[in-house]
Amino acid sequence: ETPVEDAAEPAEQQDAAEAQRAAAVEQAAADMLEQITEQLNAALGGDSDLIGELSVAPSGDEILISLTDALDISMFEVGSALPSPELVVALEKIGGVLAEQPGGVRIQGHTDARPFRSKDYDNWRLSSARAQSAYYMLLRGGLDETRVREIAGFADRKLLDEEDPLSPRNRRIEVLVEVPQG
Q: For an engineered disulfide with 69, which of 18, 98, 108, 168 has Cβ 3.0 to 4.6 Å away?
């Protein structure tokens, strides 16, 4: 055997081990996604239509729980971080579900592209204040505050509906839950 062949074998073993780890993380994400989805459906029952749209989806090595405004339902008062009573209940229930799951949590607030400015807020501060409000509701539901890794506002910089920057779908709270790595 030549030294080149000896060097290639550990690299192949590393590649195989990495592929195995990636497959295990992917399976863990799929399992976690299914579990969170089932638990949220059970916890929210028919209430999910009161908060607009709720979706649960994989997002890299995280599970993304997204709550968006609907045309006829607003999660927050206009220009405010004051949540609707329905959103309070929904996020508390989501906090209870997440309390049963492992992994760190990131909370993100988003606005639509409607220019907004008041004495207290612009879109940046509004999206950040809404994410902070969601944080408190998740904690009230049972989420341990030490699991929260980030609370961030993105204003209108990450639109869901780029074709319609004013769409209510762009106004949303996203909760990302880390999939444990092994």
A: 168
| pLDDT tens-place string over residues 69-108 | 876 678 888 788 999 888 898 899 999 999 999 999 999 9
Higher pLDDT, residue 182 or 155:
155
Question: What is the 8-class DSSP label of residue 178?
Answer: E
Each residue of 134-156: b (16+ CB within 10 Å) or e? bbebbbebebeeebbeebebbbb
DSSP character at residue 49: G
pLDDT at 115 over 60: yes
Specify the 3-state DSSP secondary structure of 51: helix
Q: What is the pTM of this model?
A: 0.84
Please state, in angstroms and rounded to a whole number, the distance separating the CA atoms of residues 157 and 118: 19
SS3 109: strand
Q: How far apart, in whole angstroms, are the C-alpha atoms of residue 86 and residue 48?
A: 9
Going across the sheet that includes 172-178, the strands are 53-59, 62-68, 172-178, 105-110, 148-153
